[in-house]
DNA sequence: TCAAAAGTGTTCGCGCTACACCCATGA
DNA sequence: TCATGGGTGTAGCGCGAACACTTTTGA
């Protein structure tokens, strides 16, 4: 019935993942560039196999791009407007790729399948960026971390999806103690504060931030971290599971 | 390609609506009972036409059951577990309806269509219960308002969907000034307070509740309401749009 | 001894809660 | 004039923000 690459997927439904990472006071998103002429980038995505749940599908997609198995994952919204189809995108490609790349690499049936209208389930994931070795899929030319404020223009409504994901992340961050998943296992209070400041794009008072975090009672204080700098050495912390 | 009743729908995706109403200090949900032997109830739901957005589909489904066009509507979650299919349900029906009702009223193609695994997009709606004249669809035997604590057992995971909807409603109620949509246009402060107490299932202090609501600066105070009771007449209010 | 940055204790103001009081209404 | 329920003012309390002070570190 409905096949793409010989797999039996649910038709007209896709999953798009906003994979957040954090490095050097910047919130980043993992974005592959498609192996087609014309600079097309999109969110890492995929389809849902008949014999897997949507969460399993999202995990499979994430694992393929990040190599990580245990990832913090949250479904945040469905995008189902009319006009969410790859048609204009493929038309552009056909125009740009007259030889044999791109659209030609799809056979006729696959092209029909992929250019229909799609409903997309948005997931966001939080990862320790240092643990990720970004993996190209077979349709990618490259895959890279982009600072969220310097994202390239993405296909369809994918820029909008990122904006929505960030909004949802901000709402959940305080509630669910998920910020730690963006950091390495061991971190200083300053690291944590800078992460929060980056996500909310506003400063926090140092002492109050520390107090608030410690009162959550989820941090183990470890030994001090001697940096060689001429100041008091900060404690290291670890998130208690 | 994919047809049910001659319509071209997206396959394996459904919409389920939790329609909230409020009457006599009770939060209610509109639940149709299916025209099949064996007491099957489900959430009002439907499918997505190829040429409508998911929001439009939800509105169409809501209008069909409530008669109302302008309805407060919120998408709150996607349910996509494995095993979300109507197969066990239809097997039960076949067992119970040996004659010609129920499953037999579907032709073979429709049966195949409807018994596949489904991904369902959950919406909740808030309506003024007095404006609604519940409408049966052709597959319903009846349709009724049920107090949320006395819901019947619904098919598949629909009871779970209702629980999720209520949870989302509670989270949004304070943020988005949507409570008023459950009340008639004109109401007293006591009406509003009782609505909140019902939804959150806990009491609020009368004076503080009043202050909080008035400080939102979204209520127009109208004339007093003389009830004939031997006490001070309460003001009537209207939500300012 | 000093500057830099980390850790901690204290005060201030706001918003929510609780208590108190007054007012209108019909019997 | 009284009971009932509605409207409003004020005091207490807890949390987060702002401020202040101490401690540690290497130059």
From TrEMBL, chains A, B:
Matches recorded under Pfam families: NUDIX (PF00293), WHD_NrtR (PF21906)
InterPro entries (alphabetical): NUDIX_hydrolase-like_dom_sf, NUDIX_hydrolase_dom, WH-like_DNA-bd_sf, WH_DNA-bd_sf, WHD_NrtR
Domain Nudix hydrolase: from-to ranges: 10-170
Taxonomy, superkingdom: Bacteria
SUPFAM superfamilies in UniProt: Nudix, Winged helix' DNA-binding domain
Stated name of the protein: NUDIX domain-containing protein
């Amino acid at each position: 019935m409905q096949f793409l690459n010989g797999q039996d997927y649910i038709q007209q439904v896709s999953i798009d993942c906003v994979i957040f990472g954090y490095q050097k006071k910047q919130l980043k998103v993992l974005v592959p560039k498609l192996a087609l002429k014309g600079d097309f980038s999109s969110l890492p995505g995929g389809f849902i196999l008949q014999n897997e749940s949507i969460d399993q599908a999202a995990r499979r997609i994430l694992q393929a791009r990040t190599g990580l198995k245990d990832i913090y994952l949250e479904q945040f919204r469905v995008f189902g407007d009319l006009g969410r189809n790859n048609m204009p995108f493929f038309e552009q490609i056909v125009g740009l790729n007259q030889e044999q790349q791109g659209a030609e690499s799809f056979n006729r049936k696959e092209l029909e399948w992929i250019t229909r209208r799609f409903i997309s389930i948005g997931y966001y994931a939080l990862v320790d960026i240092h643990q990720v070795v970004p993996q190209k899929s077979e349709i990618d030319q490259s895959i890279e971390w982009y600072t969220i404020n310097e994202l390239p223009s993405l296909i369809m409504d994918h820029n909008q999806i990122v904006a929505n994901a960030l909004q949802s992340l901000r709402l959940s961050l305080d509630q669910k103690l998920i910020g730690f998943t963006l950091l390495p296992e061991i971190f200083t209070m300053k690291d944590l504060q800078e992460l929060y400041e980056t996500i909310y794009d506003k400063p926090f008072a140092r002492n109050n931030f520390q107090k608030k975090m410690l009162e959550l009672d989820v941090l183990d204080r470890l030994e001090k971290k001697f940096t060689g700098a001429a100041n008091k050495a900060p404690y290291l912390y670890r998130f208690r599971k």
